[in-house]
Amino acid sequence: MFVHQRQGSLEVICGPMFSGKSEELIRRIKRAIIAKQKVQVFKPALDDRYDVSAVASHSQRKHEAIAVKDTTELLRHLDPDTQVVALDEAQFLDESLIPIIEDLANRGVRVIAGGLDQDSNGEPFGIMPILLAKADYVTKLQAICMVCGALASRTQRMVHTGGQVLVGAAEAYEARCRHCHEVPHPTGDRLLEDLTQGS
Ligand code: ADP
Ligand code: ZN
């Protein structure tokens, strides 16, 4: 039976640091280019750890990207004939991008967003929970826990400074599994204690 596939969708690639999100995003970008599609790659301007104008993986794989400081700037660069829009480090993009992404996907554009689903406290990160809820396809990747070697779904911050955003060198972070991950104030445990004390 012939199934007509309509184009336009949102794909989200998430997971902790070192799980291969950038590698996977670059792989999908390269395949879309092989398929002769018009691809535009964007990344938030704040993330300039490796290259201001490229998506770069920890394994040194790269693809050129336009660094944008906000949604307005992204829209200014967006070409009307673009068929694939790739977004790296999507957790740092602002909320006003969400209706734009929806509109693009509805109008036939393939949007691929890679980003951290959790911050280093294990909490939902930026617009990622919304993107995950709205996605047609979700890929959740795991890294390797640097303590026990199990699959890691969390990012451990190795230096203690305040705030959710610490854009830093890779040595400021390491991948950890749920059991080896340490949070300064484990809200989950506290909640569980409160519940057991209250019962
Ligand atoms: P992400 O975008 O999710 O941070 P990258 O695509 O940049 O991940 O990097 C993935 C690469 O990082 C792996 O292919 C591997 O070479 C390297 N790497 C370093 N530390 C780890 C780790 N703890 N677990 C898995 N891969 C790691
Ligand atoms: Zn572990």
Automatic annotation (TrEMBL):
Ranges in coiled-coil conformation: none
Subcellular location: Cytoplasm
Keywords from the UniProt entry: ATP-binding, Cytoplasm, DNA synthesis, Kinase, Metal-binding, Nucleotide-binding, Transferase, Zinc
The protein's enzyme class: transferase
Similarity remark: Belongs to the thymidine kinase family.
SUPFAM superfamilies the record matches: Glucocorticoid receptor-like (DNA-binding domain), P-loop containing nucleoside triphosphate hydrolases
Reaction catalysed by this enzyme: thymidine + ATP = dTMP + ADP + H(+)
Source organism of the structure: Geothrix limicola
UniProt protein name: Thymidine kinase
